[in-house]
Amino acid sequence: MASSKEALVRRANRVRRQLKAVANGRPRLSVHRSSKNIYAQIIDDVAGTTLAAASTLDAGLKSSLKTGADVAAAAAVGKLVAERALAAGVTEVVFDRGAFIYHGRVKALADAAREGGLTF
Question: What is the pLDDT of residues 48-88, one digit of tens each?
């Protein structure tokens, strides 16, 4: 029987494989959620570089949040990563939820990124 860590990695790889098939050269908005924080990156897989990133650990954002592990924090990170992506010239991305269910904090981050101007 596979451990829970192996199951997470397998699930994340399955999602990423499906995204690469439909990406058409668009960068990937990758989300990682921990028990205390949430992180988002815009990654160009062709060049292998990170174009923009945001998390609840950013200095300006951390002071304004009650905690880094709630829906409000995820929405703030989504807006921030959208602003940084638009500044880097990225408007269209594919959403990579990783091994996480599209629900709660992950969904809040995606909705805020859409409101911030990203299309996916």
Answer: 999 999 999 999 999 999 999 999 999 999 999 999 999 99
Domain ranges of the chain: 4-115
| Identity of the amino acid at 85 | A
Distance CA 46, CA 39 (A): 21
Taking 3-state DSSP, the helix, strand and coil percentages for the chain, each rounded to the nearest 5, stand at 40, 20, 35
| Burial category of 45 from C-beta neighbours within 10 Å (exposed 0-12, middle 13-18, buried 19 and up) | middle
User: Roughly how many angstroms between the first and final C-alpha of the chain, as a whole number?
Assistant: 36
Is residue 22 classed exposed, middle or buried when 0-12, 13-18 and 19+ CB atoms within 10 A define those classes? exposed
> How many other CB atoms sit within 10 Å of the CB of residue 102?
10
Whole-prediction pTM value? 0.91
User: Does CATH place domain 4-115 in 3.30.420.100?
Assistant: yes
- In the chain, DSSP finds a helix count (H) and a strand count (E) of 4, 4
